[in-house]
Amino acid sequence: MEIVSVINYKGGVGKTTVTSNLAADLAWNGKSVLILDMDAQASLTFSFMAPDYWDRHIKDTKTIKSWFDCISQGNPTMPLSELRVRPEVVNNFLKSRSRTGCIDLISSHLGLINVDLELATLLGGASPTQTQQKYLKVHGKLREELNALSAEMNYDVVLIDCPPNFNIVTKNALIASDKILIPAKPDYLSTLGIDYLKKSVESLISDFNWYANKDDVHSEASPEFMGVVFTMIQITSGNPISAQQQYISQTKRLGVPVFETMFRENKTIFADAPRNGMPVVLNSYSNNTHSDIVAEIEEFVSEFSDKMEGLA
Ligand SMILES: Nc1ncnc2c1ncn2[C@@H]1O[C@H](COP(=O)(O)OP(=O)(O)OP(=O)(O)O)[C@@H](O)[C@H]1O
Ligand SMILES: [Mg+2]
User: What's the mean pLDDT when you consider all of the chain?
Assistant: First the structure.
């Protein structure tokens, strides 16, 4: 079971769109996928589930917020497997096409925004040993529980849709991850942000490992940068426009791997998909542009799978 965080602390760069389409195409190819929505905006959740269903059946007991609340209240956490739901629309579609893959979801909650503050209050400690234990507990808990889930369930991959920030919830996701995928727009500020993100992750992992090395229970975390996938590309004559191309080249010079395949910009096709509970890659083609976009997403997923041992 490979765990991948999809992150960029710039907002609106396509993290959720990449996560949902990646999950959908992997499931189409027969993989069992768990998606974990760690963003209080709950965009990934509502890309697969109607808000009124979430409100009636999920909100109070079956979101990642309930799980974090246990930690901040000092109670034992429920196993993550208890929080999973199987979104109907997409899974019925996969079944109807005789596909063996599936997508399970652990939902987010709009109240997750307050969880960080509560977790932060747990971090104060009277002695260095207490500080170490609290740091490891607050930052390493998701990692521990995903390890337990991996022993219990047969998922091929877990995709974590991170919020556009670097708070404790996000740090839990990064520490739990085997790989980190960075969707980004090719523009000036996003390119600056990638370098900063990379350094922040390296510093987080180094802090975590410093504490983990002093402790018998926790092992080191070592997530690997899978690379940047560029999104919202404007295409002219089959290539990104030159204003975007220069930022793509600049990112390659940062030493971060860059996916060859990119998500092109198309407001019409991408805007409506979440409302229907079906990512773009699984929708039937409305025109040639749509089929080109689907082909590009499939190519991206194939490149992604090649980079994951055991998933190709
Ligand atoms: N390739 C694309 N072309 C056009 N619009 C897109 C594309 N990808 C995503 N969008 C749209 O851009 C908006 C932001 O996308 P998305 O929610 O995936 O970004 P995000 O990085 O997850 O945002 P946030 O930081 O708020 O979580 C959405 O309205 C989405 O429909
Ligand atoms: Mg998002």
Answer: 94
In the structure, what pLDDT confidence band is assigned to residue 216 with cuts at 50, 70 and 90?
A: confident
Q: Counting Cβ atoms within 10 Å, is residue 265 exposed (0-12), middle (13-18) or buried (19+)?
A: middle
Dist. CA 279 → ligand 2 center (Å): 14
pTM across the whole model: 0.97
Q: Which atom of ligand 1 is nearest to the CA of 161?
A: 22
- Ligand located closest to 44 CA: 2
Confidence of residue 304 (pLDDT cuts 50, 70, 90): very high
Q: Is the pLDDT of residue 286 over 90?
A: no
Protein residue whose Cα sits closest to atom 5 of ligand 1: 267
Which of 188, 207, 184 minimizes the C-alpha distance to 197? 184
One-letter identity of residue 300: F
- Of 3.40.718.10, 3.40.50.300, 3.40.50.1580, 3.40.50.620, which CATH number belongs to 2-306? 3.40.50.300
What are the residue ranges spanned by the domains of the chain? 2-306
Which residue among 17, 19, 20, 194 is best mutated to probe the pocket of ligand 1, counting the most ligand atoms within 8 A of its Cβ?
17
- Judged by its nearest atom, the ligand closest to the C-alpha of residue 45 is 2
Q: Is 36 helix (H, G, I), strand (E, B) or coil?
A: strand
Q: Which tokens is 198 given?
A: 């990379």
Q: Quick one: average pLDDT of 151-162?
A: 96
